[in-house]
Amino acid sequence: MKLIVIGGSGYIGSNIALNMHADAVAYYSRTRNKELDSKGVQWIEGSILDAEKVAEAVKDYDTVVDAAGVDSEKNQKFFDVHVTGMKNIVEPLLKYDSGQRLIHISSINVYYGQTDYLRSKGIAEDNAARVKNHLNVRPSVVFGNNDRFVPRLFKLAADSPSKLPGDGNISPVHILDLIKVIESAKDLKGAVDVSSREKISFAEAVNLAREKTGRTPVRIVEKGMGYGSAVEKLKETRIFEEYEIDRYLMNLYRENTYIDRFVKEPVLFTNHIKQYDIKA
Fold this sequence. Notes:
By secondary structure, the protein is an alpha/beta fold. The protein has twelve helices and eleven strands. It has helices at about 10-20, 35-40, 50-60, 80-95, 115-130, 150-160, 175-185, 200-210, 225-235, 240-250, 260, 270-275; strands at about 1-5, 25-30, 40-45, 65, 100-105, 135-140, 140-145, 165, 175, 190-195, 220. Strand 1, helix 1 and strand 2 (about 25-30) form a beta-alpha-beta unit. It is globular, with a radius of gyration of 19 Å.
């Protein structure tokens, strides 16, 4: 298998490039990734918004993974990267018509959320579905070594508001377990939900980090009196983007998660937090 990861310099994309089994691997990104470079993974420079460059980049690869994402809309817009970017991938795959496989890293709740992030992910899924050999992979919160989620969780735990909204279920999935599902689902088409069996809210995750650092738990407020102000105070910290908080307060747990089907012993988020090296 020849694999190219679009958006491969990011956390999920770089881990896919490093850990998926392939005869040849490349990553297409605006910026280089030092770890990938040190492992000899080929870098193809380019923007997902450059249709001609994308078409040329994907031409010789039988598996194309779209892991392009936006951490903040300060630099790029969700619609541009998720919708226009996906169209720039899909069009050449349809033109080449050589049976190339398209794997799109999407998100649980793409058709239920009201944020621009989730709406654009949903449109991207619809575009990906134009490719016959496609798979939309919908993870919950992804964690693992050197991720962006856990360090910020500890930062919030160190200076948390006096109360946190208790809604939602983030059901975090480890990056290597996510990759196991992607590889094992090689014959599947359509969409797969990937969440863990750990039912834990975002507020409970913050309190796990507080416990790890010897702090007392923050009061958790359920929907009702004080809930709205708790959400606003959380967003005012600016440690997590507003769209992330909105997503974390949704239910990301799925009874039909493909973790059960393809991963025998998933990595537990609670254990990861307990073993986390805060100085790292």
